[in-house]
């Protein structure tokens, strides 16, 4: 498998198996968000609140999530967001589409700020895919 951290972040990519070790070698901070059991937007926002270690003041909406992911004080300049159990969220197409839109917009904004935001989906198989 190609090391995702050796290249610029590009869309939603498959998470490598040894993510923490690879990230450490490239000085990339990693946070994981578990999407297991998420069925609606509120559950999704709670998953991000927990996974990113946010405070209860987190707005729990798309704009607030975007703001967190693009804030240099919240997220380091080399940051990987790992979406655990991503396949389970795909069943909720509208929710998944909205999330991907926010994540890709945040990734683009980070790039424009000279920062790197990798979006990594945990998948059961081992071949690299871009969505």
From TrEMBL:
Taxonomic source organism: Deinococcus wulumuqiensis
Q: Which residues form the Barstar (barnase inhibitor) domain?
A: 30-120
Please state which protein family the record places this protein in: Belongs to the barstar family.
| Pfam families assigned | Barstar
- Top-rank taxon, per record: Bacteria
Gene3D superfamilies listed in its UniProt record: Barstar-like
The beginning of the lineage is: Bacteria, Thermotogati, Deinococcota, Deinococci, Deinococcales
Protein name in the entry = Nuclease inhibitor
């Amino acid at each position: 498998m190609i090391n995702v951290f050796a290249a610029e972040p590009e869309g939603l990519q498959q998470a490598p198996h040894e993510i923490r070790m690879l990230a450490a070698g490239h000085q990339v901070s990693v946070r994981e968000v578990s999407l297991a059991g998420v069925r609606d937007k509120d559950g999704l926002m709670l998953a991000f609140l927990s996974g990113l270690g946010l405070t209860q003041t987190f707005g729990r909406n798309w704009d607030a999530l975007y703001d967190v992911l693009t804030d240099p004080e919240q997220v380091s300049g080399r940051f990987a967001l790992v979406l655990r159990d991503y396949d389970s969220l795909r069943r909720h197409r509208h929710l998944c589409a909205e999330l991907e839109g926010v994540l890709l917009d945040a990734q683009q904004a980070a790039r424009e700020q000279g920062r790197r935001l990798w979006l990594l989906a945990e998948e059961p198989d081992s071949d690299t895919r871009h969505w």
